[in-house]
């Protein structure tokens, strides 16, 4: 892999709760190459959004990053001041969060919102701001006449695309997206994803993308990370993880989605619930739901072990070396 644009190491996030700290992200590590599209999947509550917020340094109480590092272009973001972070945000890293559709300011026109972002992060004059604003709207196929529009005058899909236009404004090297298309119908979703993909190819930014939509994963991501209870349990080339999932949880996830290319299979899902994040069980966090769990799985927490670029956190795949 070329020098990573993003290096996440042993990232840990806790929520303060009345019952004690809940470990929502427990020791997540991965690299992202320039221009790469990494998809993150996992059932609701497994820590995907919390992890993205932590990477973007946007967490607020009761959540707190309690360990690990997030290096962007070699700089550890966890050590920067608020002002230093402000300089990186939008210019280098931009974020399109879950329910982005409602993240636009309802009282300002699209032009005013784009201009605000430019003024906060650049010294561009009005003419340059107007030119760039028209450019980014055009990139996401919104007619420039809508610069004068207010968010309520745009359809849901257009609002979502306007958010992506804002994210592209300063040509960041990394765009973090948390289910940016979940509020759209299937046709609009696909068209938005194609636009993101074309822009990624032409502009070369990397994408960190959380989704529940396995067809989006399959069509657009280079690599796929599967999360379970705050940990990455499997990480590898998307095709490889799709065709040969090795972790029993990934296997269950793949089975829960109808095959896109192959014959239709019955949706099975995965029985049971994720563990408590306040008092997680010893051993493998998936063991209570795993058909293959052994005494070893219930006793020892497995590590994420990589064999030829395909990493899996499972004793059955990576037997422990006994002393
Ligand atoms: N304010 C909070 N206080 C305590 N725990 C929280 C809080 N917000 C989130 N959590 C817990 O942190 C865990 C991770 O939540 P997160 O929103 O990151 O999950 P997610 O994977 O993004 O889920 P979804 O797919 O539903 O968006 C969950 O188990 C949740 O219960
Ligand atoms: Mg989420």
Structure characterization notes:
The longest helix has 18 residues. The protein is built from ten helices and twelve strands. 31% of the residues lie in helices and 22% in strands. The chain folds into two domains: 191 residues, 3-Layer(aba) Sandwich (Rossmann fold); 69 residues, no CATH class. The protein has 323 residues and is an alpha/beta fold. The strands form two sheets. The chain has an eight-stranded mixed β-sheet, with helices on both faces. The site of magnesium ion has 4 residues, from helix 1.
Write a short abstract of this structure.
The chain has 2 domains: about 5-90 and about 170-275, P-loop containing nucleotide triphosphate hydrolases (Rossmann fold), CATH 3.40.50.300; about 105-170, no CATH class. About 30% of the residues lie in helices and about 20% in strands. It has 10 helices and 12 strands.
Bound molecules: adenosine-5'-triphosphate, magnesium ion
Q: What is the CATH third-level topology name of the largest domain? A: Rossmann fold
Radius of gyration, taken over Cα atoms and rounded to an integer in Å: 21 Å
CATH C-level of the largest domain:
Alpha Beta
For the record, what is the CATH homologous superfamily label of the largest domain?
A: P-loop containing nucleotide triphosphate hydrolases
**Total number of β-strand segments?**
12
* Beta-strand content: 15-25%
Mean pLDDT: 91
Q: Summarize the helix and strand pattern as letters.
A: EEEHEEHEHHHEHEHEEHHHEE
Biggest sheet record: 8 strands, mixed
Structural class: alpha/beta
Order of strands in the sheet with the most strands?
Answer: 6-7-8-3-9-10-12-11
What is the total domain count? Answer: 2
Shape: globular
Question: How helical, in percent, are the residues?
Answer: 25-40%
Distance between the termini: 34 Å
Give the helix tally: 10
Spans of at least 5 consecutive residues whose pLDDT stays below 50 are none
CATH architecture of the largest domain: 3-Layer(aba) Sandwich
């Amino acid at each position: 892999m070329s020098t990573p644009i993003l290096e996440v190491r042993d990232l840990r996030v806790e929520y303060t709760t009345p019952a004690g700290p809940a470990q929502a992200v427990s020791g997540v590590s991965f690299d992202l190459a320039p221009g790469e599209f990494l998809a993150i999947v996992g059932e609701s509550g497994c820590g995907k959004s919390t992890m993205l917020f932590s990477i973007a340094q946007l967490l607020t109480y009761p959540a707190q990053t309690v360990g690990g590092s997030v290096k962007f272009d070699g700089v550890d973001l966890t050590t920067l001041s608020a002002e230093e972070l402000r300089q990186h945000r939008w210019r280098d890293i931009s974020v399109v969060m879950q329910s982005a559709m409602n993240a636009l300011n309802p009282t300002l026109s699209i032009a005013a919102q784009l201009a605000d972002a430019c003024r906060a992060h650049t010294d561009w004059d009005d003419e340059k701001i107007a030119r760039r604003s028209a450019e980014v709207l055009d990139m996401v196929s919104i007619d420039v006449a809508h610069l004068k529009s207010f968010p309520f005058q745009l359809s849901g899909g257009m609002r979502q695309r306007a958010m992506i236009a804002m994210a592209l404004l300063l040509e960041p090297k990394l765009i973090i997206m948390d289910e940016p298309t979940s509020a759209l119908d299937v046709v609009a979703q696909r068209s938005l994803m194609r636009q993101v993909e074309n822009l990624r190819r032409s502009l070369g930014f990397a994408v960190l993308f959380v989704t529940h939509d396995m067809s989006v994963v399959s069509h657009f991501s280079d690599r796929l990370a599967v999360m379970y209870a705050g940990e990455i349990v499997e990480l590898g080339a998307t095709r490889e993880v799709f065709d040969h999932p090795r972790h029993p949880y990934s296997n269950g996830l793949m089975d829960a989605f109808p095959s896109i290319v192959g014959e239709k299979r019955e949706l099975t899902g995965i029985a049971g619930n994720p563990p408590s994040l306040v008092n997680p069980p010893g051993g493998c966090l998936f063991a209570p739901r795993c058909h293959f769990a052994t005494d070893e799985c219930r006793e020892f927490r497995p590590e994420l072990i990589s064999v030829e670029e395909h990493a899996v956190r499972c004793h059955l795949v990576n037997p422990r070396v006994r002393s």
